Amino acid sequence: MRYEFIASYENEHGVKDMCQVLGVSRSGYYAQRSRGQSQRAQANERLLVRIREEFHLSRKTYGSPRIHAALKRKGVACSRKRVARLMHLDQLAARKARRRIPRTTQRDPKAMPAPNLLNQDFSSPAPDRKWVSDITYIDTAEGWLYLASVLDLFSRRVVGWAMDEHMEASLVQQAWNMAVSQRQPSADLLHHSDQGSQYTSDLYQHALAAQHCQVSMSRPGNCFDNAAMESFFSTLKSECADQQFDTRSQARTAIFEYIEAWYNRQRLHSSLGYFSPVEFERQPRH
To answer: Per-residue pLDDT tens for 250-277?
Structure first.
């Protein structure tokens, strides 16, 4: 592998210096080159082709753990360390999330928040037992576009979402209505959110009461109380909204496609044993 590294970078760095750093002799390096690629090098090159394919299929969002899981699902035998090493040499790196800027949680001082019944327990024994909800912003050249989402903690599936130029109570109600319409949850559902004015509003609280669900809210200023939703938004920002969109319409289209076509149905989740949310929900339960 050291000889392969030297061969890859000999046009950028001196062979002599790299041999000294890597602890090999120049004569050994040139002898290896004269014998042609070893079987291991050829196997690495074939594996790298598959790695590049999976990396681009993932929209350049997968790091080595998910690339390894994707290859394993397709019957490719390789170690996670080997995948990580080849990705590093090929400079394949997953996108990183940008720092969040706008504040989307605005409390109503007159509202009475619900207790934190979720208490940072993000596990769920079955679908539609625990939902979490929140709002985030999307940057566009026309101004902010706000996204409200509802996430099922069992499968991490986004079961409801809505987008608009404002972040009023009607925005979160649209996301809630979509989730209820699609999933038809039972009365023992627990709904968790922050203490934002949208979630404490009469409009939204009446919608929750009509469904007879338990209401839970995060403590003020504690983002860890809704960490699962924070994680989804961070993933969305790094994999889909990592740059400013030209228009809100463009952002809407990209986010719709990301959530429904990619995130829910194809993206491998480490917390789900490298299944997508839809695949995970279809697994037999005992």
So the answer is: 999 999 999 999 999 999 999 999 999 9
Structural contact between residues 127 and 155, judged by C-beta atoms closer than 8 angstroms: yes
Query: So where are the chain's domains?
Result: 2-89, 130-282
Distance CA 141, CA 151 (A): 28
Residue 44's contacts (CB-CB under 8 Å, 6 or more residues apart) are 1, 4, 82, 86
Q: How large is the angle between the packed helices 202-210 and 169-183, nearest 10 degrees?
A: 10
Cβ neighbours, 10 Å, residue 116:
16
Torsional class of 220: left (φ above 0), alpha (ψ -120 to 50), beta (otherwise): beta
Q: Which CATH superfamily is domain 130-282 in?
A: Ribonuclease H-like superfamily/Ribonuclease H (3.30.420.10)
Name the helix (H) or strand (E) containing 85.
Answer: helix 80-89
pLDDT greater than 70 at residue 3: no
| Cα 209 to the center of its chain, rounded Å | 31
CA 253 distance to own-chain centroid: 18
Instruction: Tell me how far apart the alpha carbons of residues 136 and 226 are, in angstroms, rounded to a whole number.
Output: 13
- Tokens 């109380």 belong to 225
* Distance between start and end Cα atoms, the chain: 46
- In the numeric block, the tokens 């998910």 are attached to 66
Residue 28 pLDDT grade (very low, low, confident, very high; cuts 50, 70, 90) = confident
In 9-152, at which residue ranges do the beta strands (DSSP E only) sit? 130-138, 145-152
